[in-house]
Amino acid sequence: METGIKSSFIPQAPVVGPSARRRGGSFDFLILIALVLFVASATLAVGVFLYVQFLQSSNASKLQQLERAKAAFEPALIQELTRLDDRMRAADEVLAQHIAPSALLKLFEQLTLQTVSFSSFAFTTNNGTISISMKGLAQSVNSIALQADLLSRSGVIVNPIFSDINRQIGGVRFNFSADVRREALLFRSLVQAPAPQTAPQNPLEQLPPSPFGGQPVEEGAPATSTPQSGDPQAQQQ
Amino acid sequence: MVRTLFALIGIAGAIGLFFLYTKPAYDSVEALRMENESYDLALEKAAELQRLRQSLLSRYNAFNPADIERLHKLLPDHVDNVRLVLDLDTLASRHGVALQNVVISRPNTSTEGRSNVIGPTQRNYESLTLQFSTTGTYEQFKTFLIDLEDSLRIVDVVDLSIDPLSTQGGDLTYSFDIILRTYWLK
Fold first, then answer.
1. Closest C-alpha among B91, B182, B183, B168 to residue B136
2. Mean pLDDT rounded to a whole number for chain A
3. CB contact at 8 A, A228 and A214
4. Yes or no, beta carbons of A101 and B29 under 8 Å apart
5. Gap from A66 CA to chain B (nearest CA, Å)
6. C-beta of residue B178 within 8 angstroms of C-beta of residue B159
7. Cβ neighbours, 10 Å, residue A168
8. Which of A1, A101, B67, B68 has its CA at 20 to 30 Å from residue A15's CA atom?
């Protein structure tokens, strides 16, 4: 007979199914995940914060070192050294191009035959090219030919041209033009090298010290040590 | 329910912290590291330049001050054309000739330059031309010309013409027209 009275005092708790326990475990796991993520993120943030501080202080320190290094350079001294360097380079360049036209005059003193004289001289430089032109008087056409040969063999005179050769009373007048080898007139090479010895090829053709103003003398006549005087206008005409 | 809420807040906080602070800060770390490396490089260069400076300074101190002074006279900072004319006149009078008709002009750089390249010049020095005429004997002029070529202040003969003038005391005198070019540092 069913009385409805429970025969057992043992409380009969509702059976908790395994699904409820499983739900509580997942909550713990979720919190664990959240905790781990948060701690990791916070640690990372702190690490990055500290690293940024370190880099910023390091950069500031290095910037100060650079400023000190810049001050130690002494900009005024650097400017002075730079200026001196510029000056030395420019001086070297200018000296390398410096020419000595007196060497050309000396060359003509040595190479001008006693039977030839020049009455005018023009020396021109243009973009590194040196050209000369002269008016002269020779005793004969042969003297001009010999003079042309001597000048050609000098190694300094390039493309010598004797023109307007005109036989007149007193001699043969001519115009002379040529280019000059620039290297032969460079001051630096002239200072460093000994003076060239250009002896006359023909012993009878002795050379006057000045190529200007002297009247041509007879071939074979003794050389004079000073330029001969004469009427320059007459020579030029 | 509360625990779930805390968990979600924690996850959201972690994600927010990462994207709102850590990631931008890390990006700035990259920039800072690059800046740091550039500073390191600059410091290395500075140390190298410091050694070079010391080397140059020791070489500079080895120069004779008189030589540096001569270099300044060879290529001055300014044209100082008045001083140049005075020096030339003194030199000429030493050889018994006198300067006449002195004309100073800047050369036309388009025709005077040593290169045919059109454009700004690479030279760090300037030049001007000085024209004058004088009279005298050939020997007088030749010694004057030699001294002119040897002078410390560099002058280049650009143009020279010699023409007979007259006879004085048995010596031929000539007129000499000469154009010189002188230089100074820019």
1. B168
2. 77
3. yes
4. no
5. 6
6. yes
7. 9
8. A1
Residue whose tokens read 């031929």: B172
- Interface check B86 vs A, CB under 8 A: no
- Distance separating alpha carbons of residues A124 and A126, to the nearest angstrom: 7
Instruction: Look at residue A60 and tell me whether its pLDDT is greater than 50.
Output: yes
Q: Note whether B14 contacts A: Cβ–Cβ < 8 A.
A: yes
CB proximity under 8 Å: B 19-78 to A? 21-22, 25-26, 28-29, 32-33, 35-36, 39-40, 42-43, 46-47, 49-50, 53, 56-57, 60, 68, 71-72, 74-75
DSSP 8-class letter at A193: S
CA distance B178 to A124: 10
Residue A215 CA to residue A235 CA, distance in Å, equals 8
Token couple for A42: 């916070």
How many CB pairs (< 8 A) connect A and B?
205
Residue of A nearest to B11 (CA): A34
Is residue A35 over pLDDT 70?
yes
Give ipTM to 2 decimals. 0.75
Q: Is B116 in CB contact (< 8 Å) with chain A?
A: yes
